[in-house]
## 1
Amino acid sequence: MKKTKKAIALMLAGTVMAGCFVGCDLVTKDSNKDLAQVIATVDITRSEEFAEGGMYAEYKDVIGEVEISKRDMIAYYQDVGYSYQQNYNLSYKEAFDWVCQSLVIRQLDVQYTMAYLLKEKVEDSEGNAFTVEGYKAAVAAGKENGNELAGISYFLDGDEEAKALYSTRRLFNNTLDSNEPDYINKKEDESETSKTERTLPTGVDTANSDYFDTDYRVYTAVGGNTLANCGSYEAVEGSTATSRKNAYTDFLGTLRRNNLLQDGENTNDIESLSYFKYELKSAYESALISKLTDEFEKKAEDKLSEEYMVEYYNTLYNKQAASFAADKTNFESKLDSISDSTFLLTAPEANYGYVINILLPFSTVQSAEVGKLQGDYGDPNGNSFKQRASILEKIKATDQRGAWFTGEKDHSYQGEGYTGGDAARKYLFFEDSLQADDNSKYESLKNYRGKYTYNGSVHYDEKTKKYTLSPNKIDIDGFIDEMEGYLADEGLTTSTDVEKGSTRNYFAQNDYYKADGDVDYSKFIYYQGKVALDGFDANRMFVKDTQENKALSVINELSFAYNTDTAGLNTYLGYSVILGKTKFVSEFEYAAQIACQNGAGSYVVVPSDFGWHIIYCTFSFTGNGSGEIRPFIYDHSKIDEEGSFSYQFYEALKTNFVNDFNSNRQKMIANVYNECKTVYEDRYADLARLDT
């Protein structure tokens, strides 16, 4: 079974500890008795479905009443409720009512999931069906061994339990990580304000939901707990044993002030704390509920036969074709919504497309000069194209990735990559994300080739732990050489339609007009070429290591390296390009439309009052020779090829099915089991009155 899409997994998981435990004090008196009060009970066996003759009647003795305490409420508020309150500007009453409702729904979900897994005779990892007898035996054994999670554990395999423990440990480390910088001594020149940032590619350091490390521990630096014995945990920059102890002490203080740390608990062992056990139970419950996702996926896959998928694809194609033919604005309004789950299967006519724009800008001084230009001599329209050209010739671009060395995290590593002939260039970025696989700590980084070395000199001082960076300054020809050299290094061939402007004395030209006096924007093309993507297949643009994806990934990486048009970073395919008049500046508009006319892999270099634009066409709608514009073809045999159109199309529809199953489940729980809860609002009324 393929991985569930993360959005669904999070939605079904229920409680998710935020990892940024808030420091507000909710309890003003030491009252364990008060916090032990039950503020709600949940028992779905009260419903008719568990009565004699009901569909779940034989499981009534298995599922019993669950009590939710006031301490649970405060813990959940600290985890999630506080952020929810701030985001939606809620009063304390509204916030704690939401917390109560969330905890109740979670337990209804847990109980329903248990009943469902038993009734449907779902099998464990060894192929044995879950049974009432097996569950009772597991609970009995758990009670003898003091295992409070035995009932839930019965439905989880060893890996699922290990992942739950790993995720809980990570959440506590994340919380301490967020507190620790307050206790790290910074030198004056290392203040937060001195940090510069550079946009990171989407997906960098994204945790792999299937990964777990059994040696991973929560780093507290107390009771013999050292960084060395915490497995794959990575300490925050500047961390010391003292700063970590202080962060942990601060965390314990918040627990203590809110009665989440009880007298006699061994604070030297964080995993023995009742609050850790609370979070671990929550993680186990999330793992249990996620089993329902697995079952819904199976149900979805049963429905998504090849016949069904082909019919669905053809229906969607015909619907879009009719809509776009009737009014092409229907299509243009959807261009920017394309994603791996939202599809445009056709277009009203060819040459619509997408481009990546890499902007090499004028310097501040040069930009001011351009702004002051009055117009070329004899130009009847007052345009200053010739004078601007002389300034364009002086533009020097630099690699913008210096902040990836010196920002919040050092993302660099030394490795082999494209160097432009400079052997001293040896720094690359995002090693963990680029070399990831299914068993890695991080998800694999998509559409970023990752082999373009930092273009400049790098010196790292081991004593001061600082970098000294000197980016190389390159003109427009130098950038083109870097781009085409990197493409060639990745086994891609480029061809030239228009020679470099410096070759044909671009900067000395005088005529920028047509015979009728209109501006001739073809005169602004400095350079034009194309990556030879023989038999370009739009269905494989996102399949790693295909020629289509190599080219996209190379240009995307160069955009992160040089582009100062940061709005263009992390877009799906780049800026959408329509036919006719656009909102783009005229030079860019003309060149982008030319690139899309020439198809995927085409690139055009033009100037504007912003600087040089290197415009690369990632994809354009073209005909297939039969009168149709149908670049994407559904092939059921390709649904396991990650990144392919068929994979994305299938996964998107499966996601919709799973969402529908889950939505129906939530509605059913609300309607059928709504009376299976009892809430005692008066027992948390003091928390609801914190506003007053």
Note: The mean pLDDT is 91.
## 2
Amino acid sequence: MKHSIFKQTIVVFVTAILLASITAGAISLVYDARRIGLQSARYARGGASVAAQVIESVDFDKLQSSDTSELYTKTRDVLRSICRSLELEYLYLYIPNQDEQNIRFIMTVASDDENDKTVDRERGLNVVVPRILTEQEITALNGNELAKAYAEKNSFGSVYSWSYPVYDSNGNVIALIGSDYRADAIYRQTIQETLLIIIPMMAVLLLVFLVELIAMRRKIFLPVKQISNRMKGFVTDSGANFEPMNIHSGDEMQEIADSFEKMSEDIREYLSSIEKLTAERVQASVELEIASRIQCGIVPERTVLTAESYEACAVARPAKEVGGDFYDCFTRNDGRVCIVIGDVSGKGVAAAMFMAMAKTMLKDCLNSGLSPAQTLNTVNDALCSSNPEGMFATVFAAVLDTDSGVLRYANAGHTRPVIFGNSVEFLEVDAGIALGLFEDAGIIDCSVTLKNNSGILIYTDGATEAVNTQNEFFTEERLISAVRTISGAQQSVEALSDAVCDFSDGAEQFDDYTTLALYYSGVPKQTLKLKPELSSLPELMDEVMKNAGKNSNEKKIVLACEEVFVNIVSYSNASCAEVSFKNLNGRLIVEFSDDGVPFNPLSQEQQDKDFEDFESGGMGIGLVKQLADKVNYRRENDMNILTLEFILGEDGADK
């Protein structure tokens, strides 16, 4: 619903006048009430003091002897005359009794005839009224005065009272004179004086407003209306030629009208240009959208790769429709997992094209069986030979052996990754050289063994260099904190993405953001808990034979496991023991653990005997070394851990 500015202005002015009048009236009312109150207090005090002088000049004992005596009548007439002349409501002589909490009246007069008859009857000589004395009355009994009148409401109405002491010839207070000034009279006078101020002021303001309103209508509202109508016509038909508005007021309204007419001409000229630009931009937008969809096919926004022993997850978030970050994660024919992440210099379509070429070559090389370093060096030479724009890309590539947890990796100028699991730390890697800069980069292979339930997190600098509204960087320290308590590939990627998003807090994303995590849970193993007693040996042997299967090395496996367990029972003083079995591509890994005294059997001198020279049981670690293909010992969490690795025979390799 539209509202007229003219009407709104009238409402504003009238409201302002009313508010100004009310404010002025309130101030005047408060001021007048205070002034009249002080004036009334002076009248009440003056009446009480004059009446006290009259009482002190007569015989007080004789005065209170009879209310029909000539002295009582004359004195009462004098007090009433004082009451009328000072416009007091009541004037009364009384003797207060502070101990008994009452007052005894001697006489009471009123300015009004009817009220005078009433108070003469109800507050006449020797009329006692129970009442707690006011502070002013107590002060007057002590011969002093308070600086203010006492306001009270009684059966005779609301009044301001003043108490004044009456002294005898010896200067002792023998009675009090009270004078009352009616509050209603104060209110009426206050309101009358306030109205005398408000009414003329409102009349003057209304007159000024009417004059100003007439001037504003001619100088502002009518020209604004004319300009508004012209704008409506221009919106309806921007191509039409309109007659000039002919506003010649010589003020801002003329400037607005002239500016609008000039703007109308400019807009008509721009319209044809805008139509052409719009068509071109629509075409460019469509092409960019297609490029974005193509890139999403090459580098999906999210990828999850899972298997029994590992999990991989990656997330890409370009800063524009297309970007230069890329990743890849896939499983080779030999069962190994390949992961790649890269960051191409620059952004936009050019970076996306360079990225697509590099990513394709990297995947082809890794799939062919090349190591990470061989892959990076091969792709680098290819990019350097056909790179007219001088673009480059930082890349980190790695291959995970899912049987052993060994991660072989190579780095080409990319940010250092994070190893996470039981602890979180950066993996110190060889810096390397970005791909596409120089031939013969000499990138080298490195390796790290991922423990069970640990992983590697790689990312582009769009994560650590994300900024918030205060232009602060996200930093590596915040990255470590984000994944410190996280396990799993998807959880770590989501935790880092959420932390970067929360940190940015609405700030514009300036760089592409990509992160990839590979989590290694390890090959499943069977665990058997045993009491370190010889009675547990048959149970162990059954489990060993079940895992070894029928093959040519079965006897060696059984004999070696028996010897290790006998040694644990005989020498370790352990209270518990565990044996775990893990089959890995034709290999059986058996791990013994016990909580006995620390003892490294591999440090003992091996006995120089052949297999045929030993009998079953108690034959020493030397026999175990001859029977097993690999033997390893470690002390971990107050446990002795001995690992035996056997190559299964042909019959058991297919089990």
Note: The mean pLDDT is 81.
